[in-house]
Specification:
Blueprint lengths: L8 H10 L14 H11 L11 E6 L2 H7 L7 H6 L2 E8 L6 H10 L5 H16 L3 H25 L3 E5 L4 H7 L7 E10 L13 H4 L4
Antiparallel strand pairs: 1-2, 2-4, 3-4
């Protein structure tokens, strides 16, 4: 049975189709911390494995912070210089530390019955305590990739443009911004601001070529 979507499908598809990687931004446009917080809050509605939300953000917006980032992103100077901010996305290897807090708050806010929490928390802790460091890393990188994509789409809905950046000194970025490099795994940088050009459209392989129906 067909159901009417509860959202504006056309508007959402337009956001998806209009999103492009932008490398030059209007340097006069600044995003307030209040608005940036709204964007990040919406982005963090992304799903994550057992809802542990391993993503962490560093919003690099001040001239001093951008100057610190610039030599670590040598091939992306334009984005760093002209964007309103560059958001460094990290994945927290210690995400299990927040299990009790997250599930406790779910109960407190009426989102989960106490008995469900009491059942799930020990099971999740036992399961995740036994996985390898590599398995944990792979999981939190996937989760942080999901929040990064949602962040880009949310930014577009707010009227801003973004560019995901993978070319930077990943082995130095955490320590440069006072994070424990063994705990916080770099995922990507996301420049954000108002585009001064339209960017380039890019070719996408047709669904028929990349999909199998069984």
């Amino acid at each position: 049975m067909n159901q009417t979507p509860i959202y504006n499908k056309e508007a959402f598809l337009q956001i998806v189709q209009d999103r492009r990687a932008i490398r030059t931004y209007d340097e006069n446009v600044k995003i307030s911390q209040e608005e940036m917080s709204e964007i990040l809050t919406a982005a963090t509605k992304a799903p994550s494995s057992v809802n542990l939300q391993p993503w962490r953000f560093v919003v690099i917006e001040s001239p001093e912070a951008k100057a610190k980032l610039a030599p670590l992103a040598k091939f992306n100077q334009q984005q760093v210089k002209t964007s309103s901010a560059v958001i460094a996305v990290f994945a927290d290897m210690n995400n299990l530390d927040y299990l009790e807090e997250i599930y406790g708050k779910a109960v407190e806010h009426g989102l989960m019955p106490q008995e469900v929490k009491d059942q799930q928390v020990p099971s999740i802790r036992n399961l995740l305590s036994s996985i390898t460091e590599q398995a944990n890393r792979e999981t939190i990188l996937i989760d942080s990739g999901l929040v990064s994509m949602q962040l880009m789409l949310t930014a577009k809905a707010y009227g801003y443009d973004t560019c995901p950046i993978g070319g930077y000194e990943k082995d130095k970025i955490a320590e440069a911004f006072d994070l424990d490099k063994d705990r916080y795994v770099p995922v990507m940088l996301l420049s954000i601001g108002k585009a001064v050009d339209t960017g380039y459209k890019s070719y996408r392989m047709p669904v028929e070529q990349i999909t199998e129906w069984k």
